[in-house]
Specification:
Keywords: Apoptosis, Cell adhesion, Cell junction, Cell membrane, Cytoplasm, Membrane, Transmembrane, Transmembrane helix. This protein has 189 residues and is α+β, with helices and mostly antiparallel strands. Helix content is 58%, strand content 9%. The protein has a five-stranded antiparallel β-sheet with strand order 4-3-2-1-5.
Length: 189
């Protein structure tokens, strides 16, 4: 943002916008039914963070079982949900931080630290789920962790990357605020 001459006033909303996209991806992961799906015919298994559904054959009715009956199901849901709530809090704090004319860089570094905590909780939930699901739930055929699970990992990766950006941004405080005299590499003869 600083190195290529992008003006702070034009680019100040990029990081909150990326956090907003991370929130949207987190909502998709929480609400999506594609955490685990059957990969080949017959498509008889489908699971979300909250429940596991199966049907006896291709045209049958789905029967669903809540994963909240398992301790690991509650742990996976709780840790991912805590990470998501922290992400939403970081999004709100980023909107407040970048809306103020005088940017508080220590406040921004705190948002970065909170994003790392959110990433830890999200990754814990994303690791608990497949490990315990594949050992505790009987699966038939070939199954894959699918699109909603991928959105969960995308959210966690965004939390980590944006945490680095929020933590490193205060190092360029003078350049962002325009307190440094520009250096020109071209000199006329």
């Amino acid at each position: 943002m600083v190195k290529y001459g992008l003006d702070y006033t034009r680019c100040r909303w990029i990081l909150p916008l990326l956090l907003g996209i991370g929130v949207i991806f987190g909502i998709i992961a929480l609400a999506g039914r594609g955490w685990l799906e059957s990969q080949t015919l017959p498509y008889v298994h489908q699971a979300s963070l909250w429940e596991s559904c199966r049907r006896p054959d291709q045209g049958g009715e789905w029967t669903c079982e809540s994963l909240m009956g398992y301790a690991w199901g509650r742990a996976a849901a709780a840790t991912y949900l805590v990470g998501f709530i922290l992400l939403v809090i970081c999004f709100a704090l980023a909107i407040i931080a970048f809306a103020i004319d005088t940017l508080r860089f220590n406040f921004i570094r705190g948002i970065g630290g909170l994003l790392f905590v959110a990433a830890v909780f999200s990754v814990m939930g994303l690791v608990i789920y497949p490990v315990k699901f594949s050992t505790e739930i009987e699966m038939t055929g070939i199954n894959m962790f699918s699109w909603a699970y991928g959105f969960g990992w995308t959210t966690a990766i965004m939390e980590i990357c944006l945490g680095f950006f929020f933590c490193c941004l205060p190092n360029y405080e003078d350049q962002i605020l325009g307190n440094v005299k520009p250096t020109y590499f071209y000199s006329s003869p």
